[in-house]
Amino acid sequence: LGRGHDYEVYYIGFGGDGHIDRLNLTYMLYGALGQDDFNSIAQRSQDIRSFFAAIEASVDFDWMRYKAFFLYSMGDDDPYDGTAQGFDTILDNPNFAGATTSFWQRQQIPFVFGGGVALSGVNSIVPSLRSSKFEGQSNFVNPGLWQVGAGADFDVLPQLRLLTNVSWLSWDSVQVLEILRQQQRISREIGWDLSAGLIYRPLFSNNIVLRVSGAVLIPGSGYQELF
To answer: Does residue 132 register a pLDDT over 60?
Structure first.
């Protein structure tokens, strides 16, 4: 998204991973604070003030684990106000909401077909509108994300696990998308991410691990309006 720029960002976070009786609980809260000397979308310097939260809760019943998860990545509701509110990461590689089987996290979804800027990058969960998390610079003027879902893991055999997940996805704010696409009244709903996978460990260890998975994104009104 335009020329290179300098930015200085500080991340302040708090997280936990444990359980309360039978309830397994993992959570992470992050704030991003800093300064961007020139954002290519806003065409000006920006104060960075953004927030991120993710939580997953699960309960085990013998060979079955049922889980629910929620994620909020703050979006920028006014690209021109001098404050960049869209959360972005340094180099994320999430293990969340299906992760390796999720369509949203495993497939790069282009912002414009044939373009190099992505709505969602490979092995990334935040819609930061950058070319890639390896080469593109962080961009804190982005639409943000809401994700709510549930899943279940089944240890069918000691060496075979079945993973299933379903998520509902929505933009936090659509103003950035409307400005860049010169398109009004884009809906916030992205759609439903459905995925399933199998993990097979023939030696009962991690020396050999075989995986197969499939995923589909059922587009909502906001996704259909973009494409």
So the answer is: yes
Q: How far apart are CA 42 and CA 82, in angstroms?
A: 8
User: What is the reported pTM?
Assistant: 0.88
Residues forming beta bridges with residue 90, ordered by sequence position? none
Out of 117-126, 146-155, 165-174, pick the least confident: 117-126
Alpha-carbon 37 to chain mean position: 26
What does each C-alpha distance from 125 to 45, 46, 73, 133 come to in angstroms? 25, 23, 9, 11
* Percent of the chain at pLDDT exceeding 90: 55
pLDDT tens track for 91-110:
888 888 888 889 998 888 88
In the numeric block, the tokens 């954002």 are attached to 39
Kindly tell me the burial class for residue 187, based on how many C-beta atoms sit within 10 Å of its own C-beta (0-12, 13-18, 19 or more): middle
Residue in 54, 119, 121, 42 with CA at minimum distance from that of residue 85:
42
Token pair 């609980």 is at which residue?
25
Can you tell me the distance from the alpha carbon of 149 to that of 68, in angstroms, rounded to the nearest whole number? 6
